[in-house]
Amino acid sequence: MKITRIDTFILHVPVTRSQIADSTHQVTHWGAPGCIIHTDAGIFGTGYSGTHGHLPTDRLITDCIEHTFGPLLAGEDPHAVQHLWRKLAHFPPAQWVGRGGITHLALGAIDIALWDIKAKAAGLPLWQLLGGSDSKIIQAYNTDGGWLNWSLADLVADCRRLVEEEGYSGVKIKVGSPNPTDDLRRIEAVREAIGPAVKLMVDANGRWDVTTALSLGHRFADFDIFWFEEPIWYDDLPGHAELARKLATPIALGEQLYSLDNFRDFIRAGAVHFVQPDVVRLAGITEWWQAADLAYAHRLPVVSHIGDMMQVHLHLAIAHPACTMLEYIPWLRRCFVEPATVRNGYFVAPQQPGAGTTLKDSALNEFNVRN
Ligand code: MG
User: Fold this and answer.
1) CB within 5 A of ion ligand 1: which residues?
2) 117 with 168, same domain?
3) Are strands 44-48 and 29-39 parallel, antiparallel or unpaired?
4) Does pTM surpass 0.90?
5) Which residue(s) pair with 170 in the sheet?
6) pLDDT tens digits along 264-291
């Protein structure tokens, strides 16, 4: 099989209630800049990144796919994913300008498309190609009821509905309000609403400094917080290590770490308890699997951040032994032929061959802003 052509797209899909916010981001659309890789066997693979839907930035990713990496893939066998990953990641002109960021996100989209082809060619869902079994149970936790721009009343109502009506046994809420006392009030109200048996996670999206994170983090134990996510600046390894040592609540991070080397450093420093790699931040499935194996070797749980909006990560969670739980955010569900689905609080194993990334024609017609 040979690669014959690469098409690119940029989807901008509206988020829940037209705008969401955490302590550092405001988003109206989720962006999915990506590519469809065609082969001479008639099989095609789809891969994409996950962004805040900013067109000039998204174009940098698709330009990199098209003009920098595309020529390196022409005529190659898409089965050779590991070989092609190294060829692209170590392409000197691209490596020189970025071993993270734009070039890495572009490589991630390509890598996902190649794995999609590989699984389709085998006639298997990716989780099965990777050796998983659909007897494995993946618990879903919901992040889409906990945004910081929700009023306290809406936040409590949403979290209660997710637990009582939709069957979730875990929810995550955003913290990092201008006045930290408000965060404690929100946590207290949600814990009261969902009861003691439901997992409750909090996410500061890198907003605080170590001092603030320590003083608030000590209070979290009162509310049985399952993990404290991205308390401080993403790259602050010694700061996270200090928090991990001093707080009773476990630390979660990884959604803003770009490379296997980053994960090695944080894990070796004891700076993370719940490891959250993302296939759209790392360079695709190939590097995600390496990071997950690394975490597993340290007996740390892997709970992916879902910049892909679950589609690929669901396959990986089923297949990888470090995973038992996955985040749920539904923004892109309408775009896929087989959208990731939760029933009674647990994910349903996808059945179609591929990595779960095949788009509906209607999604490309309605949401593609690339021209
Ligand atoms: Mg987060």
Assistant:
1) 203, 229
2) no
3) antiparallel
4) yes
5) 199
6) 999 999 999 999 999 999 999 999 999 9
